[in-house]
Amino acid sequence: MFFLSQNEFTVRSALPQDVPVLCRWWNDGRVMEHAGFPRGISTTEESVARELSPKSSTHRLIIEVENTPIGEMCYRETEKNTAQIGIKICNPSFQNQGLGTKVLTSFCRNLFELYRFDKITLDTMLENKRAQHVYEKIGFVQTAIRPDCWKDQNGIPRTAIDYILLPENLKTENNPLTVRSALPDDIKQIEPLYALLFERMAELQPQFNRSANQESAFIRSLIMQEENEILLAQQGKQILGIAALMMTHTPPYPCFISHRYADLLDLVVTPSARGKGIGSKLLDSAKHWARLHNADYIELCALSNNHGAVRLYEREGFAECSKTFRAML
Fold first, then answer.
1. DSSP string over 247-269
2. Half-sphere exposure of residue 258, counting CA atoms within 13 Å on the CB side?
3. Which are the contacts of 182, defined by CB distance < 8 A and separation ≥ 6?
4. What is d(CA 329, CA 175) in angstroms, rounded to the nearest whole number?
5. Contact predicate 181/229, CB 8 Å
6. Which tens digits make up the pLDDT trace of 147-189?
């Protein structure tokens, strides 16, 4: 799953529950006018759902503010190491506020740094001056103007402008804190964080825990499996913390009410970055991820004498629901 959270916005993969809002946007002429469809595209929810199929070559993304969809993005590989992208802020209340610039900048940085694209391309209509200003502001360069290259649904000839962005031209913000989905290339940076976690557990309860290294195969399984996730807190190129999640179900016994829930397996922040709200940011993103996966709740375990972690969890809305007792023999 594509998941990128930064300050006031989140960009994440479009999911089946997004079909109604995408259908509404695509049929709204006010939203689609700048794409050449002033009457919308008259699509159906069934057609939109097919667009979200894993077999589709286009990756559709949702832009959210405070967990509410306000726009969409997409990208696809048009040739080797070249991504073609699109973006629309569909809610008028969030237009002309600089949000599109921030979202697009972070998105392009991820495509370059994490997904290893060498070039990013897009196009827009000649009259869409606002979009052109945003693109050029972050480093896109015009490559072509295509006069009257097609007719819109009203039969009016439209002129398109093509843009390209190279990594060295991207104008980025000053290292904002970002929470994102981990990728296989991140495993080598995740392993030391697990070593820190296990070392801390050994300090707190040495009679039961010891320092160790997490298996790379386990980390990879969390990254690659659809209903597992490792979320990374990153600033610049430095990974400051992780939250590992797994979707699961209550045991299938008659005494349990059936629930689908997210198990927060591990949470760790590097010592130098503690006390800066990074743990809270990771927990917020973990809750968001769990809601997107239709979890009823999110659950975790903490060592009883890890007082700092317990305070963090209670401050972030977690409540004790059981206690584990142990008698030494």
1. EEE--S-TTSPP-EEEEEEEEEE
2. 3
3. 190, 222, 223, 229, 230, 231, 232, 242
4. 53
5. yes
6. 999 898 889 999 999 999 999 999 987 788 999 999 999 999 9
Query: Sign (positive/negative) of CA torsion 172, 174, 179, 180?
Result: positive
Distances (CA, A) of 244 to 20, 202, 251: 30, 19, 21
Please report, as a single letter, which amino acid is at residue 298: I
What are the tens digits of pLDDT across the range 56-74? 899 999 999 999 999 999 9
* Surface-to-core class of residue 209, CB atoms within 10 Å of its CB (0-12 exposed, 13-18 middle, 19+ buried): middle
How many other CB atoms are there within 10 angstroms of residue 259's CB atom?
Answer: 12
Beta carbons of 124 and 89 less than 8 angstroms apart? no
Q: Could you identify the residue written with the tokens 């606002």?
A: 130
Is residue 294 helix, strand or coil? coil
Which residues have C-beta within 8 Å of that of residue 241, sequence separation ≥ 6? 193, 232, 233, 267, 268, 269, 270, 273, 278, 279, 282
Q: Is the pLDDT of residue 30 over 90?
A: yes
